[in-house]
Structures are given as C-alpha cells and as structure tokens.
Write the structure tokens for this entry.
Amino acid sequence: MLNYQGAVFRPPSEANSLILQATLGCSWNRCTFCAMYREKKFSVRKIDELKAEIDSVARDFSAPRKVFLADGDALMAKASFLAELCDYLNATWPDLQRITCYASPQALAVRKVEEMAMLREKKLTQYYLGIESGNDQVLSDLDKGVDGDEMIRVALRAHEAGVKLSTMILLGAGGHALSRQHAIDSARVVSAINPRFVSTLVMTPTENTPLFDADLRGEVDHLSPIELAAELREFVDHLDVDGCIFRSNHASNYLTLAGTFPKDKDALLDVLNRVLADPSNAAFRPEWMRAL
C-alpha cells in the first residue's frame, strides 16, 4: 500500500489521480504564506520503496489514468531518478495518460531543458507552478526567491521542453498599496509565459507561517471581496494569452469564474464590471465556505 509520510497535498485538478509521494517536503520551503511542508525536511524517497508501493496498488486497485508526484517539489529530484520512476509507472500501467508534479522556480532553474524533454517523453507532461505575483516587491515579501523576470525565464524553459504549465496567482498578496500594480505585473508575467492554465487564489493566512504570525500582529493588509474583485478585473484586463484556460474556482476565492482566453475575456470582464457596479447582487462565496 501507499506509505504516506506526513500530510499530503495535491492540486484540485488531481482529485482523481494516484498520489505517489516521490519526494518529501519542498526544497525551497520558505514562502511566507505556505504551511504545507513546514514539518518536513526535503528528501527524495528510495526508488525501491516506490516501486513496491506501485506494485501494491497494481495488485489491489484498478489502473489509474493519472499520477501526481508529491510532495511539493518532486522536479528537484535527479532526472535519472524521475526517469526510472516514470519508466516503472509506464511499465506497470501502459495506458497511463499523464504524470504531473509541482515545480518550484528553483527546480525549473536546475532541470536542464533536455532533461525535462526526456521526462515529457515518459509522460511527465505537466507542472504546477506557483507564480503568486509578477510584482518584484510582492515576490520579495512572499520570499519566493525569484523576481518577475526570473519567473518568466525559468517557466519558458519548461515550455521549450514541451511541458504544459498550470500556474497560480495570489490575489490580495500586495495589500491595498500594491493591489493594482500586483495585478498588472502578474498579468505581464503570465502573458509572457502563456501557460496552459492559470488560476487565482486569495492569499489567506494559515497557522505555522510567517504570514499568520504577521496577521496576528495586525500587519497583514487584507482586501475586501469587492476590492479583490477589482484586483481580479485589473488582472483579467491586462492578460494577453492564447489558448489559456482560466479558473477562479479554488475554495479561497470569493468569486467563481471560468473561461478560456482570449475568447472569453470580454465576457469575464463583463461579469466583473457588473460585480463592481452593484456589489449587492454579487454571488460572493460566504466566508464560512472559504478554505485553502
């Protein structure tokens, strides 16, 4: 059976995937808002243990269509390790559709384009990248370890390898002072990357993070739902991508929107314009229904 160590997390779109804990923790693990891997030290699991877990799943369950490689930064493992793991997954389940993982900007900087292309041939075809912001001050405050231009550079290396990217932006991360610039700069970075998917989340303090501690001290500048809608409108208005699927359906969001750019851009702006013109009729998610 699967031998999970500690809490295990996955993107919402991997709800029906086999979650295989190829690595433990996150190699960066410094983002001020993220509590997911605070209790773990990053390490790569033994390949023989993982093969045994795969064998156990193959014996006891039907074949999965998708596999997600946890924990937070599996792409930081050596390419040879990932290649052997992908080969074993494909040999066990020849009809496997895809393998995915989280990818930090640091991992994208380390992995060679040729390595990522080789792994893509072994069905590791999509990475989840937390961009969070395109604004350099916000990225510094979040301790992402890169600025906006570096985020673009490393993400385009994945594109060069033919890998799809699913990216995330944190609404509200710049507070009131940087709200508009955070939206505009985030749209610039996402537009330059042109990912297959882009989602928005709302920055939400969670326990065991520097952000949570700052919030307890009254130092976090929260935006209201209507202010977040205005920030989202600015982001959507400046977004210039082609064939990109947009979602704001994560549970942290107050507004649930979906569309494909560029064809749905005007319709999304129309919805946001109506929300801003008459907030009383906006279908904001109640606070008790929001979560990370």
Observations:
- Residues 179-193 form the longest helix (15 residues).
- The chain has one domain: 12-289.
